[in-house]
Automatic annotation (TrEMBL):
Keywords: Membrane, Transmembrane, Transmembrane helix. This is Major facilitator superfamily (MFS) profile domain-containing protein. It is a multi-pass membrane protein. PANTHER family: INNER MEMBRANE TRANSPORT PROTEIN YAJR, MFS DOMAIN-CONTAINING PROTEIN. It holds the Pfam family MFS_1. Residues 11-126 form the Major facilitator superfamily (MFS) profile domain. The chain crosses the membrane at residues 12-37, 49-70, 82-101. InterPro entries: MFS (IPR011701), MFS_dom (IPR020846), MFS_Domain-Containing_Protein (IPR051068), MFS_trans_sf (IPR036259). The keyword Repeat does not apply. It comes from Caenorhabditis nigoni. One of its GO terms (molecular function) is transmembrane transporter activity.
Amino acid sequence: MRIIIETSWDVVYLCGYFSLVVYFQYAIFTTIMYTYMTKLNPSVGPTTFGLAVTFHGIGHCLGALAAAWWTNKRYKARKPLLAGYLLMLLSNCLFLLADHVPMELTAPFIMLCRFLGGLGMGTVVL
């Protein structure tokens, strides 16, 4: 017996739109982050910026794995997607508070923010 499942194209288009918004946000953050990091701590160099971008990528990979595991375990994507968007919101709110962090901790703090943002963006694969 074959089961034919129809694709809901409205949902596919909506997911494409959300992916576009998320990656647009990432592109904006990446372009301004180096200038922002050097403003907060003038001793920050390109290597530190590269580490922050790398932490985002690592978080993205781990978030994708966690989202896939969670979705396969429950066969539903709503809660993992919601958790991902909440992680991105938390990451952005923390990023706004980077001005209030002591100067020597700004680079690790921004790396943490980008890691959390990457974890949240990992759910885009759903």
